[in-house]
Amino acid sequence: MFILARRKDIVRGLRWVLIFFLGMLAGAYLADKTPLAILVGRTKKLLPIYSVATSEKKVAFSFDATWGAEHTPKLLEVLRQHNVRTTFFLTNIWLEKYPDMAKKIAAEGHEIGLHSATHPHFTSLSEEQMEQELRENHRLVEEVTGYKPELFRPPFGDYNDTVIRVVQRLGYKAIQWDVDSLDWQEHLSAEEIYQRVLKGIKPGSIVLFHNNGKHTATVLGPLLEKLKAEGYQIVPVSELLIKGDYYVDHNGVQRPAR
Known about the structure:
The protein is an alpha/beta fold. The protein folds into two domains: 2-41; 51-256, TIM Barrel (Alpha-Beta Barrel).
């Protein structure tokens, strides 16, 4: 009898825990009008945007600029020939060496994003140091190109909750990628990079390239032709992003709030 009574107490306790949990979810739903299924699917961890939920065949090409510029004129020429605008994430390290190239990128209608001043691992910095990196990067981007950046890509893709909080506090959106071309790896051939991007791309993808990858400019033309033939539109990152209220799910996908 004692064991039976104990079991009843345990079941009763579990029932109250379940009721409490459902009550919390219902309260959250009433507070922000968000469907319970979405609340359960959201993550407490702060994430950058890796891709965008969309039924449109739109993707964003992005180029990180940290080293070199000898291949960049050809890259810009290909983009110009295909009438495509993209996003370049620039560091101060690169801007200080190639200000004329940065001006050309902006003059040709490409979006400019922040990529830090000195390209450090942001998770190793204090909040004050993060802010300094972002403010100095913004200052030089605007000074050189006249562009007012609204996006930031963490160097090395390195972030944590604190990094995302600081970025958002300063009014920027943190951007990652869901398709990595790996074009910085010199042992990869142009064909391997081409196939890698095609295999990973889908509506809402953000593709990572580098402005000075050895094969990037060579791969770019065939990629644009193939994607356009499949009905894709290639746009800057900010044009791909959802406007208005949104959330980022546990996979880093930006989704509209409901």
